[in-house]
TrEMBL record:
Protein's recorded name: Methyltransferase
Reactions mediated catalytically: a 2'-deoxycytidine in DNA + S-adenosyl-L-methionine = an N(4)-methyl-2'-deoxycytidine in DNA + S-adenosyl-L-homocysteine + H(+)
Domain DNA methylase N-4/N-6 intervals: 57-359
Pfam families xrefs: N6_N4_Mtase
EC number of the protein: 2.1.1.-
Length: 383
């Protein structure tokens, strides 16, 4: 780590308890799979986080469901007649409902289906209060969020064939149709109100974003990635994510301060720890807050929200070696893959155990004998 980087927890003398994964796992009844360095839990993020010990996580990298954009198929029917297909229960984006034919109850606790933007943000704030408790004081949280439009928001029924992950019904937004809602920034401001320190608003620029049919506005080619911390001094190591210099300017003619010019050699002079093989060995410049990264490849038929390179950067800079990385909305565990590649431990939480099955393949792991089956008949999506 350079002298310019924020010093890590150990340099500050702040206690950073290093709980083993076993201790984590034994503390939580939600464990679905565990190995020495990977634990996957099934359940609502808030419930699972409540079961984890205080100050035990070094870094969080997560992409929660965006408000009203996707259905992750976590709704369940309970009670009623066993054979009923609940044909008249258009539960869509509802969190609760009842089948008029058999009386079965519908329950869905997935994030993103809240009736209003304010309720969605409130739920995220609750999860962030949990994160504040489990995070070490010097920990970092990287939050990826995309925006939503209020257009077509009043009971709009998705056409068929629509996107298979799109909800059939979308609740009313708090702005008139066609408004961009600014959900990432609304959330960031709310988290600031709760005491989080917003250190960066990284624009994740997607060069090959999905084309939009809209003809009266520009296509959206970016999402936000916020870096949030709990205190002014936190773990941050810029060196692993510096961009190497690829030009041909001699080392002696390159900037050695500031760290933002493309020709910057490093943050300090004279260069230390470098041999004389040339400028390619020099750490390079600060990557800045616009990251151009293609969207992630789908895994197991499910779209991933971000490409591997994104959590790799977050973890390399924001998690000490050997530290524990948490993703409370982990899906196919792209964050877990990045954590393993970088030698960090990983804890992933998702409501839908099907995603953990995909994650295991993704992580090159096989199932523990103790894992529950994902073939739970009550685990059915909306009709
Ligand atoms: C945008 S996806 C995350 C994708 C992930 N970054 C990946 O690499 O695949 C959001 C995930 O949050 C999960 N989810 C939704 N509501 C949840 C809740 N209340 N608690 C935990 N997970 C939830 C969904 O099942 C989905 O897998």
């Amino acid at each position: 780590m350079t002298r310019r980087a924020q010093r890590g927890p150990h340099e500050h003398g702040i206690a950073s308890p290093r709980l083993s994964m076993d201790e984590h796992a034994s503390a939580s009844p939600y464990v679905w799979h565990r190995t020495a360095d990977v634990t996957l839990c099934v359940g609502d993020a808030h419930d699972v986080l409540a079961s984890l010990p205080d100050v035990s996580v070094d870094c969080v990298v997560t992409s929660p469901p965006y408000w009203r954009l996707r259905d992750y198929g976590t709704g369940r029917w309970s009670g009623g007649e066993p054979g009923c297909l609940h044909p008249h229960a258009a539960v869509g984006m509802a969190t609760t409902g009842t089948c008029v034919d058999c009386g079965a109850g519908w329950d869905d606790v997935q994030l993103g289906r809240e009736p209003t933007a304010a309720e969605y943000i409130d739920r995220l704030r609750t999860v962030f209060a949990d994160l504040a408790r489990v995070l070490v004081p010097t920990g970092t949280v990287w939050l990826n969020l995309g925006d939503s439009y209020a257009a077509n928001s009043d009971g709009y029924r998705c056409g068929r064939p629509g996107h298979p992950g799109q909800p059939n019904y979308r609740p009313r937004a708090d702005r008139s149709d066609k408004n961009l809602l600014g959900m990432p920034w609304r959330t960031a401001f709310a988290l600031q109100d709760d005491g989080w320190i917003l250190r960066n608003a990284v624009v994740w620029h997607k060069p090959h974003a999905v084309p939009t049919p809209a003809r009266d506005r520009l296509a959206c080619h970016h999402e936000m990635l916020f870096l949030l911390v709990r205190q002014e001094r936190y773990y941050f190591d810029l060196d692993p994510i510096r961009q190497p210099y690829t030009g041909d300017r001699a080392l002696s003619r390159r900037a050695h301060r500031g760290g933002t010019k493309p020709t910057t050699a490093t943050g300090t002079w004279p260069l230390r720890g470098l041999d004389s093989t040339g400028p390619t060995r020099v750490p390079g410049r600060n990557p800045g807050d616009v990251w151009t990264l293609p969207t992630g490849a789908p895994h197991g038929g499910r779209p991933v929200s971000f490409p591997l390179e994104l959590p790799v950067r977050c973890i390399a800079a924001g998690c000490p070696p050997g530290g524990l990385v948490l993703d409370p909305f982990c899906g196919a565990s792209t964050t877990g893959l990045a954590a393993r590649q970088l030698g960090r431990r990983y804890l992933g939480i998702d409501l839908n155990p099907d995603f953990h099955g995909i994650a295991l393949a993704h992580l090159g792991l096989s199932k523990n004998a103790s894992e529950p089956s994902t073939e739970d008949p009550s685990h059915r999506g909306p009709p």
